[in-house]
TrEMBL record:
PANTHER family: TRANSLATION MACHINERY-ASSOCIATED PROTEIN 16. This is Translation machinery-associated protein 16. InterPro entries: Tma16, Tma16_sf. Belongs to the TMA16 family.
Length: 180
């Protein structure tokens, strides 16, 4: 694992001054250590936010990878792909209905229920405009999808298409540029 800037800064200060028992609160060295710690915290937060943003596409690729494996690694027909997309879009419907049933009459929706509604509606809207998914109609693309091991960097090796609800297929690039 790479060294953090805090470790490097601490090492540089020890190298310059020798073993440090205490640093004055407002000294230059304490300010350097504070800046290094803040920089490390910021990098951790940015990396965490990035992983959280990437997770839906990783889950999507894994879902379609599993579907291809269930089809014995054979290319899928467009109608079968459409059914898989519908299944993916409506995967939270059962959980949403369970939450609605569990809620007492007259009570507001829970946070989880609201999040599921937003997620379902955004997936449905994406499907109407063009659902981004790995290309699964050729032997080569199915083999590439089968080799997907769950990393973000591998997703760029796959061919991606947008499938709209009316059956139109358009080639697309990955990662998406925020057009949906």
């Amino acid at each position: 694992m790479p060294k953090t800037s805090l470790e490097k800064t601490r090492k540089a200060i020890v190298k310059k001054k020798g073993q440090i028992d205490a640093i004055h609160e407002f000294s230059r060295d304490s300010k350097r250590l504070h800046r290094a710690a803040a920089r490390d915290d910021k990098l951790v937060k940015v990396a965490s936010a990035r992983r959280k943003a990437d997770r839906p596409y990783l889950n999507r690729a894994a879902f379609f990878q599993e579907a291809v494996k269930q089809n014995d690694l054979k290319p899928l027909e467009l109608s079968a792909i459409g059914e898989l997309v519908k299944e993916y879009v409506h995967q939270y419907d059962e959980e949403l209905s369970d939450l609605k049933k569990a809620r007492r009459p007259g009570r507001p929706a829970s946070t989880r229920e609201d999040l599921l509604k937003v997620k379902i509606s955004s997936l449905q809207k994406e499907y109407e405009n063009g659902f981004l998914l790995p290309e699964m109609t050729t032997e080569e693309s199915v083999m590439l999808l089968d080799r997907f091991e769950g990393s973000w960097s591998y997703l760029t090796n796959l061919k991606w298409v947008k499938l709209s609800e009316d059956g139109r297929v358009q080639p697309s690039s990955f990662p998406p540029k925020g057009d949906h």
